[in-house]
Design brief:
Elements: E1 2-3, H1 7-17, E2 28-29, H2 32-42, E3 46-50, H3 58-68, E4 73-78, H4 83-91, E5 96-99, H5 104-117, H6 126-141, H7 148-158, H8 163-170, H9 174-188, H10 193-202, H11 210-218
Parallel strand pairs: 1-2, 1-3, 3-4, 4-5
Length: about 220
């Protein structure tokens, strides 16, 4: 079960996981409440949960899912990475924490580990997880070195949000958003926001829009 309030992310994950052997996506929803309703109906083995949802935090949803079904494995999938957020997720009972910047291979690896562990909880500490995920992000992005927050700014820019709207969504200042956008333009080599988004999608920094993905697969 996929729980993320961004349609592009949900569709990208569904398309990606469809090719993973032994994994079946039983549903994808945008809110915590919808996830609880779906979990009651289909009893998923694993829930991929975004850390920030419009109605519940990922931690809160994790606790409620485990109260509903103690055997479920919750994987927090987020753009944010800090010891505090990882530790909070593990305390809530999450089986794993994966940043979107770490890429699909890491997510596949986690799903395989969960399948083999048969419900056992992780032994890694929050600092260990942060260090490992930081390394994976650096390897994946190479010289781009896009931070999780910058990637989130890119995702919201791709959705057409203004700097003010992005600032409100991420709980940061509008000037911080402008700073990130300018830094990203310089690193990716873009002059406009539209060019920034297009190049970021081509480089794999953010998922392509569903229309772009469809056009690419049809060529």
């Amino acid at each position: 079960m996929i729980v993320d309030d961004h349609e592009v992310v949900r569709e990208g994950l569904m398309a990606t996981l469809a090719s993973v052997e032994g994994v079946t996506v039983v549903g994808a929803v945008a809110t915590g409440r919808a996830a609880l309703e779906l979990a009651r109906r289909v009893a998923p083995d694993v829930a991929l949960v975004d850390l920030r949802l419009p109605d519940l935090s990922g931690d809160e949803l994790c606790r409620e899912l485990l109260a509903l079904s103690p055997s479920i494995s919750v994987v927090i999938l987020s753009s944010y990475l800090s010891e505090e957020t990882v530790r909070s997720s593990l305390r809530a009972g999450a089986s794993a924490y994966v940043t979107k910047s770490a890429g699909v291979p890491k997510l596949r690896e986690v799903l395989v580990e969960l399948r083999n562990a048969r419900g056992e909880r992780p032994v890694q500490t929050a600092p260990q997880l942060v260090k490992e995920l930081d390394r994976l992000v650096a390897e994946r992005q190479g010289t781009l070195r896009i931070t999780p927050q910058q990637e989130r700014v890119l995702e919201l820019t791709a959705e057409g949000l203004t700097n003010r709207a992005i600032a409100a969504r991420l709980f940061i200042s509008e000037s911080t958003v402008r700073f990130h956008v300018q830094k990203l333009k310089g690193r990716i080599g873009a002059r406009t926001r539209a060019e920034l988004v297009a190049k970021a999608m081509r480089l794999g920094v953010i998922p392509p829009a569903p229309e772009a993905a469809t056009a690419t697969s049809a060529q």
